[in-house]
Fold this sequence. Notes:
The complex is a heterodimer of chains A (about 110) and B (about 110).
Chain A: E1 3-5, E2 10-14, E3 19-21, E4 24-26, E5 33-38, E6 44-50, E7 56-58, E8 64-68, E9 73-78, E10 87-94, E11 101-103, E12 107-112
Parallel strand pairs in A: 2-12
Antiparallel strand pairs in A: 1-4, 3-9, 5-6, 5-10, 7-8, 8-9, 10-11, 10-12
Chain B: E1 4-7, E2 10-13, E3 19-25, E4 31-37, E5 43-51, E6 54-57, E7 64-66, E8 76-78, E9 87-94, E10 104-105, E11 109-113
Parallel strand pairs in B: 2-11
Antiparallel strand pairs in B: 1-3, 3-8, 4-5, 4-9, 5-6, 7-8, 9-10, 9-11
Amino acid sequence: AQSVTQPDIHITVSEGASLELRCNYSYGATPYLFWYVQSPGQGLQLLLKYFSGDTLVQGIKGFEAEFKRSQSSFNLRKPSVHWSDAAEYFCAVGSEYGNKLVFGAGTILRVKS
Amino acid sequence: DGGITQSPKYLFRKEGQNVTLSCEQNLNHDAMYWYRQDPGQGLRLIYYSQIVNDFQKGDIAEGYSVSREKKESFPLTVTSAQKNPTAFYLCASSINRDRGQPQHFGDGTRLSIL
């Protein structure tokens, strides 16, 4: 069965510093991978997705993610964090059948000024 | 603007009571989903529907029921059989049931026990 691990529950970075959020997945074939962001009390917004092709994927709000098959990872990065990036971030993998998603437990990002 | 509307934003349930959470979408999407979110556990799939008049159980369907009589509506009922209903409930939709279609989310309903 598919699974997603986000090893970091909380991460704190200074405004203007770079960011990397880790995501490891378990999936037998080529995965469909997603990163979503959630502000407190809100729904989830899609940041980016990976299906195939170029392993470096660009998303909205200046985020990017790199798919590494050998490491079963899909880490999210941003060169310079803004205070408005403080939120919870979820990595997800698509299931083998249909369009169900399996989510990681999330990483809460705090930005200090 | 197209989107997903969940109501109410906050809901309180008494012991032994059934409550229904509303989810409406005007995106003309075929597929709809209900997730439950608990702190530190991510999102878990309760039910999903790939087309009108059809739905399947997700990973945690016990104590919940759904209907899909109209394309734009996918209400979730939390029954009295669900012993721990306090959570944040999110509804989502995708254009169809094909793998990899992005899911679009509503703003959620927070359910609490009185």
